[in-house]
Amino acid sequence: MRAPFQILAIPYKIVDGQPLFCVLHRADHDQWQFIAGGGEDDETPIRAAKREIFEEGGVTVTDLLPLDSICSIPVEIFPKRREYGWREDLYVVPEYAFAFACDDLVLSHEHTECVWLSYSEAREKLHWDSNKTALYELHSRLILS
């Protein structure tokens, strides 16, 4: 059963002292985003993030950075919400953001390609505002630490 929340996970690496962020192109829509997905059964957001990172990026994460960025996503984005058993009076679900350091990804069938970009390049390419907000937070944390 799909839990009523979404996760977002940002892959990043530091090259020559500068952060780079991996942006993925979806296979089913012409849009760029970070790793995203929903919780299953009684998973916590952090457990769901680790699973989605492995499923979509082929990376086993042990050190996951929770971000403060949280957004609300309209349930209309989820066409199978009735199949998920979500309440009829549920109008939005929270999206919890995380980040993880890695050198490369192994893409699943959900994505056609990925690119490593600077902050400004990644921000320009991203489709969803929630991805841009979480990217801003992560970039700020990385350059100020």
Shape: globular
Largest sheet: 7 strands, mixed
User: What is the terminal-to-terminal distance?
Assistant: 39 Å
CATH class: Alpha Beta
Number of strands: 7
Please characterize this protein's 3D structure.
- With 145 residues, this protein is of the alpha+beta class.
- The protein has a single domain, classed as Nucleoside Triphosphate Pyrophosphohydrolase.
- Helix content is 25%, strand content 40%.
- It is built from 3 helices and 7 strands; from the N terminus they run E-E-E-E-H-E-E-E-H-H.
- Strands 1, 2, 3, 4, 5, 6 and 7 form a 7-stranded mixed β-sheet that branches.
- The protein is globular and about 50 Å long.
- The protein starts with a strand and ends with a helix.
- The mean pLDDT is 96.
What are the main properties of this structure?
145 residues; alpha+beta; Nucleoside Triphosphate Pyrophosphohydrolase; seven-stranded mixed sheet
What's the layout of helices and strands?
Layout (H helix, E strand, L loop, with lengths): L1 E14 L2 E9 L5 E2 L1 E6 L4 H13 L7 E10 L17 E10 L9 E7 L1 H7 L3 H16 L1
Parallel strand pairs: 1-6
Antiparallel strand pairs: 1-2, 1-4, 2-3, 2-7, 5-6
Structure summarized in a few sentences:
Helices cover 25% and strands 40% of the residues. It has 145 residues and is an alpha+beta fold.
